[in-house]
Amino acid sequence: MAEQEANCLTAFPAGEQTVWADVSPFLGTVCRELEVGELIHGENFNLFEAMSALEIMDPKMDSGMTSCGYNSVEEAIGSGAAPIKLHLLQTIDVMDHLLACEATWHKGHSLAQTVFTCLYLLNLERTSPNSLLHAYCKVTRVTCNLIRSFVSQSRTHEEEDFFTMAFGLPLKGEGDDKCLSILNAVDETVARQLRACKNSVTRKKIADDYESLQPDPDLEEGYCKAVLSRLRFRKSFYHALTYMGKPQGRGLEMAHKHIVSGLSELARIRESSDFLSSISSRACKGEFDDRTTASGQEAVGFDASINSRLLSPTPPRSINILSWKMAIDYFEKLLQDLDRICLLPLNPTIEEALQFAVDFQKSQPDLVSRSQLQLLIVQDGKLFGRDLLSDVICRAMKMPHLANNRDFQRNDSVIQLGRLILNLLRILCTNIAYQHRKLGKSLQEWDALLHQVEMTCNNQQNGTSSGSGGEGLWMRQMKSWAEEQTCWIACRFLMLGFELELYSPSEYCMIYWYVEHVLMTLFHYKVFKERSATENEHERMPLSVDPCS
């Protein structure tokens, strides 16, 4: 089915060798003969597919019928909708609008209706003569592909969170691995020009050696600052994502440095708004509350309906691109959330990791940062990619000597408990509505594990099990710790109901009673665990012998 859809997409629009058949007479004959409730269908038709079928040629259901722009990228480029020779202010407008489109994509819309409405991205090679535009678009495309890869790998998203479908768009291209070198070359050129503008003594000499970015020398410094801040933000953002993707958190320190740099560049981008809007006000006047560029002008090289035919399997969906100010606010908060992840210690206990995930949700992070958190905590079925779950459970039970015990590591209950812990960490990185639903199901799995462990403990106590005495000791300790975590999950499940406003005021008394009961039970389990750990420590201590006796 996917191959058929891909073939349809590549075959449209029709070429010179395409043969069209007129089916109007056939449809007219059928319409006269069909009774009410009858329909034409193929041999492979079934009612299940009919439930998800869309009515073609209906603008409300068929997104291919809503096209009111160009039929292809080539047609748009041929009509001059995406010129390569741009004034510097126009190039900055393209950068700003592309940033707003990227933020809109992060908010749950599709790439085809946001980032790839940019005609320059759909044919990136033709932008090579404009080095500034080419470098910015190239690193934007690479960053989008990187984010899409992270989110798909984490599997913490739903359709309303993030849209990962690429619709066959050119997310990858030759030379993507060299995007930073291209960006650095342009950055160095603009930085030299900025130094020349600041040095009034050598300005004339350097201006003769280097080509100015635009004809007005009085505006050169402001333009250079605006361009540099945008280029360096993209570079810092890409570096931060790359370093955060390194295994076992090895790149978190460098990611933190680039995040700090990215936040400072965002502040400079904000400052450039006054300069750019003052220039554009010569041609445009008025308020720009919904503007997608710092100058307030409409960016060239974008067409909202250029990819409408790629969306034909889905109903039309109206897209409101975030304003420039909202996009800057979004990326600022995103970097702040990522920075909190970078400051997470890499050797926490499982309880500390769970509590960090809960506290992280209080700032209402978006999916990109939540995906990064999950990929950091859960790597290759291990905590932070280093610690086996059996070792984590040993430390949580206050019985670290079991780390080298093969019987403990191979125990079915221990393996199942490790899987439940990994699943719980993944759940805590999802949005709170999905988290609430999954925690309710997870409680049933934890309850089943508790019954299994309790049955094993009873069999050992009655002598019907072949386990050793040592196994019975850590099995009871594990049961106590699992009960403690079950109470923690139940408390989290109940408290999420308040955040989601699921309770009516008349139910508050009952919910408070449940929360109190769960917290008191949790407290008793913690006390029991500490007491058992102390007793186990005393049992393992060697007896001292009095030499005088």
Characterization of the model:
The protein has 549 residues and is mainly α. The protein is 59% helix and 1% strand. The protein has helices at residues 2-11, 24-33, 47-51, 73-78, 88-106, 119-122, 131-154, 179-198, 203-209, 220-244, 252-280, 324-342, 350-361, 367-377, 389-396, 406-410, 412-427, 432-462, 469-499, 508-540; strands spanning 378-379, 382-383. A two-stranded antiparallel sheet has the order 1-2. Helix 17 packs antiparallel against helix 18 (432-462). It is globular, with a radius of gyration of 31 Å. Mean pLDDT is 83; it is low at 1-12 and 543-549.
The share of residues in helices is 55-70%
Distance between the termini: 87 Å
Largest sheet: 2 strands, antiparallel
Overall structural class, as computed from helix and strand content, comes to mainly alpha
Average pLDDT figure: 83
